[in-house]
Structures are given as structure tokens and as C-alpha cells.
Write a structure and sequence with these properties.
The protein has 209 residues and is mainly alpha-helical. The chain is built from seven helices and no strands. α2 packs antiparallel against α3, α4 packs antiparallel against α5 and α6 packs antiparallel against α7.
């Protein structure tokens, strides 16, 4: 019975839902891939700060399309343990998107980075986002109700591994972000402008540097 509840919930989560009409065909992997694609566009076509900003605005649009979904998903508590793990995994993908979009938006306003450096930073995000998107695709496949060759235990072992992998990528994205901000801080320190960096990224209590 628990397995049936889990499979029905996952099908509802990844394919259709009655909670809101706008979620009818929402697929988190589509959101992740959309962000990857627009970030690749930043790397490939942004020769100036203005063109980078214009391209990044498309990324923000995709991010905002999914934000309401992720915010609402956080409030869903009445789930069996297995479904809860799937929920947490999907929410981590939302966190990864949130870290990237909000942090890179600030980096584009940071005079301590050149356009070329921002392109390189974006390329690093592409790699991390693609890897997390691959894990999400694996998760979607393993919880698909047509995947009948797996036992309940095998299925949940894969779900647990997907959760651990996504958590690792989430931490890597945060680490990568902090290291890039740390570069800006060190450059600002040489110029005596650390207050500007702190005002831009927040008072981090030394978490960036």
C-alpha cells in the first residue's frame, strides 16, 4: 500500500497535479535544462556586459516560472517517507537554481569581475547545473510507474542515491559561488573597497573568504 501511495504521489508530482492549474505539465527537469540552455547562451554570445544582462534576463524568467512551484512544494508535509525523500531531492534542485540566479545576478553588478571572467564563471555553473540535471532525469526515470523491473528496495536505493548526489551538487554550487565571491573580496581589499562587496553580497561572517 505504501508503495502504491508513493508511486501515485510521484506521478502526480512529476507529471500532473490538481493543486494548481499552472502546475499541470510542470517538470522540474525541464526547468533545470532551460536554465542550463540560457546559461550556455551567456557563455557563447555575451561579448559585453549589456548583452550578458539581456541573456541572463531569460534565465531569470525561467527561474521565476518554477519558483512558485518550489515554494509551494516546501509546504507539502503529509507525505510518506519515500515520497518525502523525492520531494527533498526536487527542492534541492530549486536551491541550486536559487543560488545560481541570485548570486550571478549580483556578480554582474560587481566591478571586480570582467565580462570574460563572468563568462568563465557562467561556464562553471553550466557544468554543475548539467550534472545535477542528469541526476534529476535519473530520479524521474526510476520513479516512473512503468519502471517495473525494479523492486521497491532497489527503487528506493536509487532514490536515496539521487538525493545524496543532488545534495553534493548543491553544496558544490554553494562552494563554487563562495569562492568566486571571495575573489571579488580579495580584489576589493587591495583597493580598500571591501564595504562595497559586503554591501553587494551581504555580511557573510567570513563564509566567503
Amino acid at each position: 500500500m505504501k508503495h502504491k501511495v508513493f508511486m501515485l504521489w510521484v506521478g502526480f508530482l512529476l507529471l500532473t497535479t490538481n493543486m494548481s492549474a499552472q502546475w499541470a505539465v510542470f517538470d522540474p527537469s525541464n526547468l533545470a535544462q532551460g536554465i542550463v540552455n540560457t546559461t550556455k547562451q551567456i557563455v557563447q554570445t555575451s561579448a559585453t556586459a549589456q548583452s550578458m544582462l539581456q541573456n541572463f534576463q531569460e534565465t531569470v524568467k525561467i527561474y521565476e516560472q518554477g519558483k512558485q512551484y518550489y515554494d509551494a512544494l516546501k509546504s507539502v508535509n503529509n507525505l510518506v517517507r519515500d515520497a518525502r525523500r523525492v520531494q527533498k531531492t526536487i527542492l534541492l534542485v530549486g536551491e541550486i537554481s536559487d543560488i545560481y540566479v541570485n548570486s550571478f545576478q549580483k556578480m554582474m553588478a560587481d566591478p571586480n569581475f570582467s565580462v570574460e571572467e563572468l563568462n568563465a564563471i557562467a561556464e562553471g555553473y553550466v557544468i554543475l547545473l548539467e550534472e545535477s540535471g542528469t541526476v534529476l532525469e535519473q530520479l524521474k526515470t526510476v520513479v516512473n510507474i512503468s519502471t517495473l523491473s525494479l523492486s521497491d528496495k532497489d527503487r528506493m536505493d536509487v532514490v536515496d542515491q539521487c538525493y545524496r548526489d543532488i545534495l553534493e551538487y548543491r553544496n558544490l554550487v554553494q562552494y563554487y559561488t563562495n569562492k568566486n565571491i571571495g575573489v571579488s573580496y580579495l580584489r576589493a581589499k587591495k583597493k580598500g573597497e571591501t564595504r562595497r562587496v559586503i554591501a553587494l553580497y551581504g555580511n557573510s561572517n567570513d563564509k566567503y573568504w
